[in-house]
Amino acid sequence: MKLSEVQFGALVPVDGYGPGFFRVGGAVLHGPVLVRPDGGGAWGGLDDAAALLALAGSVDVIFCGMGAEIAPLPRALREALEAEGLGVEIMATPAACRTYNVCLAEGRRVAAALLPL
After folding, report:
1. Residue 82 and residue 75: Cα distance in Å, rounded?
2. What kind of architecture, by CATH, is found in domain 31-114?
3. Where do the structural domains in the chain lie, given as residue ranges?
């Protein structure tokens, strides 16, 4: 089997993560982060709906990494995102990072809202 390294070009992947931090496009970010194909930065967590709603029209799906374990997204937040036409997939943060990177490499319009481990 031949393996080849994924090339992201100008798109920004999640390079790594650990307790309380993420490495996004080579930069280390602490705390919750929001990652888009054009970059990543600090995010206010589940109370920061405005940052997620601002993605409407530019992404189709947001992968929500809820930490080490899967947890439900607050109902009001999920309903607000879906009302704006944003798909929401809830998973543990490690799975959200991997899924975001795979979909990004496939050219899909995705973002990741990640709570740290």
Report:
1. 11
2. 3-Layer(aba) Sandwich (3.40)
3. 31-114
Q: What is the pLDDT of residue 9?
A: 77
Instruction: Give the pLDDT confidence of 93-115 residue by residue, as tens digits.
Output: 999 999 999 999 999 999 999 99
Give the CB-side neighbour count of residue 102, counting CA atoms within 13 A.
7
Which of 7, 10, 14 shows the shortest CA–CA distance to 96? 14
In sequence order, what DSSP letters do the residues of 27-52 get, joined into one string?
A: EEEESSEEEETTEEEE--GGG-HHHH
pLDDT for 2 equals 59
Q: Give 109: exposed, middle or buried? Use CB within 10 Å, 0-12, 13-18, 19+.
A: middle
- What pLDDT, on the 0 to 100 scale, is given for residue 5? 67
The DSSP letter of residue 73 is P
18 token code pair: 């650990």
CA dist., res. 98 & res. 96, Å (int): 6
